[in-house]
């Protein structure tokens, strides 16, 4: 009984109590436990394991029947990956694609966020959900939707005479799918940052006679820099890991979209078709390195923008 | 070229017959302690992994029918799921089932060390299978899988097209080319070659006698440029160069069916199970498709190609006792009641045509063939039934896909797509694939020679 008294009393301020702030912090931290566990099991541990996997290779002999022997190869997989022209050509493709797609997606998302911010809350709510729907749609369903939207037979746009499945249209068709899928998420993040602008700032600008366009460019856009950086970072990462859209188009235009068309497709092919997990891991680590450099670049750019 | 999208689809689609042949066996062997226990205390318990949603029914019926073997059925979500789950269990060295429904070609199963050599225990079931079915699971003189075949391929031609040009149904590929020339003048195409699907080409090569992979001593011999393959290349190249083919993708089914049903297509190669889908989606031409044997390279030949890319197997390490139990279960499926219980869908009442079986099974083949022919799809049902029966009993086997099929098939798809799009010739494409295979095998330390 005495113990229980101490415990219960402790929460109300006794000397042996756990401080209130710590309890609050623990409660807060408990919300991230599920995520943290997932992060550890599905990100941290695989990354640690990858450093072991990458220094081994599976080798067979004779007819190659039976399990392969695992041998230590040091940095051989990484060196081979670094010299793999197919891999870097794939990077070139997604980089070119990204140079066009990332700004286009960001610009359209920003415009959408500003437009929604300029209407009444009720109307904004409806548009927010509508624009977010594609992002919430599972990839498989997205694919089915676009098959029908692009099909020369069923497409509602066939009156235009454009064949979205034509090999010359592949990049455009993929880009359109990507914008459609990513616009809502980016818009939502940017719209969120717009909500944090103090009302009096906007009001003061209006009293000073600033037009809505001027308010948008001089007040709202600067407030959006951090969210634009964040979404740009995600867009860059997503672009460098481009997989869904080209994988879908591989069946439709196999002469253009080969199995190693993008870095992610090549990694997938090596890991799950060729079955060379060791080499796929080496390619993945290189991809992670490039993503890391790209992320640093995006943040550095943000820093410069903020200084301006 | 034919309604199957890829070889994998061939086996997956229909024929549970091929892979399900043994949908029965699979208890993991490994557990020698339990083996001893089961010997003394009751039936041998085996575990079966399969993605057949009705598989439990057959297992229940088998378990009731005897007391020697008790099968535990573990339903897998899909072909992909069974592959992932098995790979995970194998890599983790956890307990493996005693039987796994096929998800990969024979040599892949052996090359990965998954499949057990069952040469000693398979003997009781061999008399129930055709030579083709047995060849499909034999490697280097040993058995590593449960016998099975892919559904045999045959053709259907649009009778309106034949009437329009006043020709008989093609018997040879020369006839197909001749029909293609005539159709081209009116904007029609004699066949469809989907850019993502080289399986039709592989079947042509098989029918022409190609053997891409063989072993010589402790080395693989890779030969994608043999005479048989060259025959297939010649025909297809003429079709491509002569603009006699369409390139509808199987990814866009509405467009595909729409084209097939437009009257502009002359010939489809298919397996019997495609007919229901065609009938539903091709209303304009339904009832106008004349079934014909697979076109031959020389008149008088009767080759029926079919490449099995999913072979059911008994995992490595399974004890002899459990292997024998698996064989008892598989043998039971070779009886009329076992086949019915295992493969008849209780909801739709549909069932596949048994393929790759001998008369020893006493299957009522006419009944199954009758059931496989939908109303008003073929122009002559009786003729179609004869061809389906022939295809199910005489489909070829033994086309080895080598130890690195999963690596080279995507490369073949890439090269095939380029050839169909006229970026390169098919001969160049196939030479590239051979180069890829040799390089891939060498990189894995596997001995390889080019023929």
Automatic annotation (TrEMBL), chain A:
Keywords of this entry: Cell membrane, Membrane, Transmembrane, Transmembrane helix, Transport
Gene3D superfamilies per UniProt: MetI-like
Residue stretches spanning the membrane: 31-55, 94-115, 127-149, 169-189, 221-243, 279-301
Protein name: Transporter
Keyword Zinc-finger: no
Organism placement in taxonomy: Bacteria, Bacillati, Actinomycetota, Actinomycetes, Bifidobacteriales
Family from the record: Belongs to the binding-protein-dependent transport system permease family.
This protein's record includes keyword Hydrolase: no
Residue ranges of every copy of the ABC transmembrane type-1 domain listed in the record: 91-298
Residues in coiled coil: none
Main location: membrane
GO terms (BP aspect): transmembrane transport
Automatic annotation (TrEMBL), chain B:
Record keyword Signal present: yes
Coiled-coil stretches noted in the UniProt entry, renumbered to this chain: none
SUPFAM superfamilies per record: Periplasmic binding protein-like II
Tree of life domain: Bacteria
Key words, A-Z: Signal
Signal peptide start-end: 1-24
Name the record gives this protein: Extracellular solute-binding protein
Organism in which the protein naturally occurs: Bifidobacterium ramosum
């Amino acid at each position: 009984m005495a113990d229980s008294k101490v415990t219960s009393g402790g929460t109300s301020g006794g000397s042996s109590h756990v401080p209130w702030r710590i309890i609050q912090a623990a409660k807060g931290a408990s919300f991230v436990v599920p995520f943290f566990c997932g992060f550890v099991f599905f990100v941290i541990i695989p990354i640690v394991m990858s450093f072991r996997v990458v220094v081994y290779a599976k080798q067979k002999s004779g007819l190659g029947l039976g399990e392969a022997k695992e041998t230590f190869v040091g940095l051989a997989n990484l060196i081979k990956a670094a010299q793999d022209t197919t891999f870097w050509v794939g990077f070139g493709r997604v980089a070119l694609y990204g140079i066009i797609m990332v700004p286009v997606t960001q610009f359209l998302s920003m415009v959408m966020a500003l437009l929604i911010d300029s209407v009444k809350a009720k109307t904004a709510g409806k548009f927010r959900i509508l624009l977010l729907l594609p992002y919430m749609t599972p990839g498989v369903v997205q694919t089915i939707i676009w098959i029908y939207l692009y099909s020369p037979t069923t497409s509602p746009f066939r009156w235009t005479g454009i064949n979205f499945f034509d090999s010359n249209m592949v990049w455009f068709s993929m880009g359109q799918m990507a914008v459609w899928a990513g616009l809502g998420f980016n818009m939502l993040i940017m719209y969120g940052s717009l909500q944090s602008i103090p009302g009096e700032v906007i009001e003061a600008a209006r009293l000073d006679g600033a037009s809505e366009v001027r308010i948008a460019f001089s007040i709202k856009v600067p407030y959006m820099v951090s969210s634009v950086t964040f979404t740009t970072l995600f867009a860059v990462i997503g672009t460098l890991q481009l997989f869904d859209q080209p994988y879908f188009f591989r069946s439709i235009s196999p002469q253009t979209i080969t199995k190693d068309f993008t870095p992610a497709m090549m990694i997938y092919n090596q890991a799950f078709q060729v079955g060379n997990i060791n080499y796929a891991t080496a390619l993945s680590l290189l991809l992670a390195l490039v993503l890391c450099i790209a992320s640093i670049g995006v943040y550095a750019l943000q820093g410069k923008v903020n200084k301006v | 070229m034919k309604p199957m999208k890829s070889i994998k689809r061939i086996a997956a689609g229909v024929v549970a017959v091929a892979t399900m042949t043994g949908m029965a066996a699979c208890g993991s062997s490994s557990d020698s302690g339990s083996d001893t226990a089961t010997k003394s205390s009751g039936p041998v318990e085996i575990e079966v992994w399969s993605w057949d949603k009705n598989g439990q029914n057959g297992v229940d019926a088998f378990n009731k029918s005897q007391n020697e073997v008790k099968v535990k059925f573990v339903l897998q979500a899909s072909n992909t799921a069974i592959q992932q789950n098995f790979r995970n269990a194998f890599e983790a060295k956890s307990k493996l089932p005693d039987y796994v429904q096929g998800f990969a070609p024979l040599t892949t199963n052996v090359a990965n060390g998954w499949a057990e050599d069952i040469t000693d225990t398979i003997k009781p079931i061999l008399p129930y299978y055709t030579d083709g079915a047995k060849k499909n699971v034999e490697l280097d003189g040993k058995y590593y899988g449960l016998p099975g075949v892919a559904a045999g391929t045959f053709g259907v031609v649009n009778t309106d097209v034949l009437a329009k040009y006043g020709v008989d149904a093609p018997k040879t590929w020369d006839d197909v080319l001749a029909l293609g020339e005539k159709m081209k003048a009116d904007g029609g195409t004699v066949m469809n070659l989907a850019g993502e699907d080289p399986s039709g080409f592989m079947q042509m090569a098989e029918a022409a006698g190609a053997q891409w992979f063989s072993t010589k001593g402790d080395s693989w011999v890779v030969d994608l440029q043999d005479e048989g393959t060259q025959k297939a290349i010649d025909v297809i190249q003429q079709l491509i160069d002569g603009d006699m083919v369409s390139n509808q993708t199987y990814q866009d089914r509405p467009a595909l069916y729409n084209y097939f049903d437009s009257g502009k297509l002359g010939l489809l190669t298919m397996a019997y199970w495609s007919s229901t889908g065609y009938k539903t989606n091709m209303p304009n031409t339904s009832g106008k498709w004349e079934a014909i044997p697979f076109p031959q390279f020389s008149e008088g030949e009767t080759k029926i190609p079919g490449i099995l890319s999913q072979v059911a197997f008994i995992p490595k390490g399974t004890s002899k006792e459990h292997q024998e139990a698996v064989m008892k279960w598989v043998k039971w499926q070779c009886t009329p009641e076992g086949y019915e219980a295992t493969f008849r869908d209780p909801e739709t009442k549909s069932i596949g045509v048994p393929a790759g079986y001998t008369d020893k099974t006493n299957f009522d083949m006419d009944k199954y063939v009758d059931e496989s022919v939908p109303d008003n799809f073929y122009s002559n049902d009786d003729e179609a039934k004869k061809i389906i029966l022939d295809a199910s009993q005489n489909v070829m086997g033994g086309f080895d896909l080598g130890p690195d099929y999963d690596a080279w098939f995507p490369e073949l798809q890439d090269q095939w797509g380029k050839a169909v799009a006229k970026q390169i010739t098919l001969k160049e494409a196939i030479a590239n694939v051979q180069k890829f295979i040799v390089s891939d095998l060498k990189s894995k330390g596997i001995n390889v020679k080019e023929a």
